[in-house]
Amino acid sequence: MEQKIKKNDIIDIDVKRMGINGEGIGYYEKLAVFIEQALPGETVKAKVTEVFPNRATAELIELIKPSKHRIDPFCPVYDACGGCQVQHFDYVSMLSQKRDIIVKSFDRYLKRYDRHVIKETIGMENPMHYRNKASLPLRKIDGKNRFGMYARNSNQFIAITDCGIQQPKINDIFMTITQLMDQLHIDSYDPKTNQGMISHLVVRVTEGLDEAQVSFILPKHHEDINKLIHPLISLHPEVKSIYEVINPDMKQSFFTSQSILIYGKETVSIEMNDFKFSLKPDAFFQLNAVQADKFYHKMLELAQITKDDVVIDAYAGIAPISHYIGDKAKKIYAIEFNQDAVQSAHISLQNNDIKNVEVIGKDFLKALEELDEKRIDIMLFDPPRSGLGEKTIEVIKQFKPKRLVYGSCNPSTLAKDLNELIDLYDIKEVVPMDMFPFTSLVESITLLELKTEL
Ligand SMILES: C[S@@+](CC[C@H](N)C(=O)[O-])C[C@H]1O[C@@H](n2cnc3c(N)ncnc32)[C@H](O)[C@@H]1O
Fold first, then answer.
1. How many degrees, rounded to 5, is the angle at CA 119 between CA 113 and CA 122?
2. Hey, is 50 helix, strand or coil?
3. Could you give the ipTM of this predicted complex?
4. Of 2, 73, 200, 250, which is the most exposed, with the fewest CB atoms less than 10 Å away?
5. What residues make up the catalytic site (predicted)?
6. 308 among annotated binding-site residues
7. Which CATH architecture has domain 133-279?
């Protein structure tokens, strides 16, 4: 079908809602047009950048009628950097947009549901400086090593000096390391020229115990990396753990099996809800600890666990959910396939003297296949963005736990998964949770109860 608009057309358009990537969406002759940085309620002039059969994209060129919720972004490189998507929208309005993104996903993918089950988004009192870990590329620019981010929708490097969503200590450590590299003539690796030494830095800082872990990511081993250790720890004694990670192709994640401890302890410690967690560099830990604590408490509240319940903590990471449940359940199986996370979970459960959790270091489906347990009362899920998927849903239908608590970081896969479960389960409550302020990411927790009439 021929579209009414074509590339480079300039259009005036009313923005109706926000898409999952934080863009404004308006309709031109029924065609959805996605406009970056346009806000719901605005009328804008936009230049069409691409036209596809079912949608178009456009670039905002003028605000004809701005939203009263539009604000000035706090970050000087916000327009270029791809890290945040919604700094131009006031925080409280964005919280209700996050709920709306879930509503729109449910409208699209669920054959039936009651909108009232979706509650208000739980936000942060102070949404700045929440990230406790950053994995950033390095580049040498005008003779100096810099850390940065990639530009929106591209791999163009944008140098930064400070980031308002990272904890200040992370910014300080990045700054110190790049300055030390300048002094010691250690260069950032440049993939275009294949020259230099360090391609990325991963820095994690821990709440409560104020420890830091630094991982240098290098395409190949280099002895000179050791020169950075002593100046770094004398300037930042909180750095308790340093790794050299050899990653020749950067295809998958930063961490590879060649992660070598070059200074200090294998793990750093974080305190949350009176638990002390020990983190290896590649172990998943929620990036926003303040919200993570609320997230786990909410999961626990919705799960309504009793002393007789056998519980599965699926996609467990270092098993924080199992820690929060602790002796409220009869038995908990924490299932996680990342071995760094599994080791961290074992150490943490032992340190916190939690005895009724069995950590199974396997793929979720394999673990359930081998599980010698006839009855599972409650399953708590916290999967990656791809959601549960068909096979996991089959397993749920086979075990039929009385209650499912589903922590999700992707409203689309959540809605698709729920659609496969609603013949067997009632959706009782969906609680959106803002784990990543100033981004368009939406997390939520859903409580499902097995239908009683079945
Ligand atoms: C979103 S994280 C949640 C971790 C944990 N619940 C927390 O709050 O810290 C998802 C975890 O699932 C793990 N994972 C992903 N796919 C898996 C699978 N098929 N089987 C077991 N674990 C898996 C990942 O390694 C990751 O640690």
1. 145
2. strand
3. 0.99
4. 2
5. 409
6. no
7. Beta Barrel (2.40)
Active site annotation includes 84: no
39: exposed, middle or buried (Cβ count in 10 Å: 0-12, 13-18, 19+): buried
Cα 200 to ligand 1 centroid, rounded to whole Å: 24
Q: pLDDT by residue for the chain (454 residues), tens digit each?
A: 566 899 999 999 999 999 989 999 999 999 999 999 999 999 999 999 999 999 999 999 999 999 999 999 999 999 888 899 999 999 999 999 999 999 999 999 999 999 999 999 999 999 999 999 999 999 999 999 999 999 887 888 999 998 999 999 999 999 999 999 999 999 999 988 999 999 999 999 998 778 999 999 999 999 999 999 999 999 999 999 999 999 988 766 787 778 999 999 999 999 999 999 999 998 889 999 999 999 999 999 999 999 999 999 999 999 999 999 999 999 999 999 999 899 989 999 999 999 999 999 999 999 999 999 889 999 999 999 999 999 999 999 999 999 999 999 999 999 999 999 999 999 999 999 999 999 999 999 999 999 986 5
Strands (E), 224-362: 239-246, 259-264, 268-272, 275-279, 310-314, 331-335, 357-360
CA-CA distances (angstroms) from residue 371 to 38, 77, 320, 341, 374? 50, 51, 21, 20, 8
Domain with residues 1-69, CATH architecture: Beta Barrel (2.40)
Rounded CA separation 287/204 (Å): 9
Ligand 1: residues within 6 Å at CB? 284-286, 315-317, 320-321, 335-338, 341, 363-364, 382, 384
Nearest CA to ligand 1 atom 6: 316
Q: Is 87 annotated as a binding residue?
A: no
**Number of the ligand 1 atom closest to the C-alpha atom of 338:** 25
Mutate to test the pocket of ligand 1, among 315, 323, 381 (most ligand atoms within 8 A of CB): 315
Q: Work out the number of other CB atoms within 10 angstroms of the CB of residue 92.
A: 11
94-125+288-450: CATH topology: Rossmann fold (3.40.50)
The percent helix, strand, coil of the chain (3-state, each to 5) is 25, 35, 40
Q: How far is the CA of 104 from the centre of ligand 1 (A)?
A: 26
C-alpha span between 261 and 250 (Å, rounded): 19
CA–centroid distance, 252 to ligand 1, in Å, is 16
Domain extent listing, the chain: 1-69, 94-125+288-450, 133-279
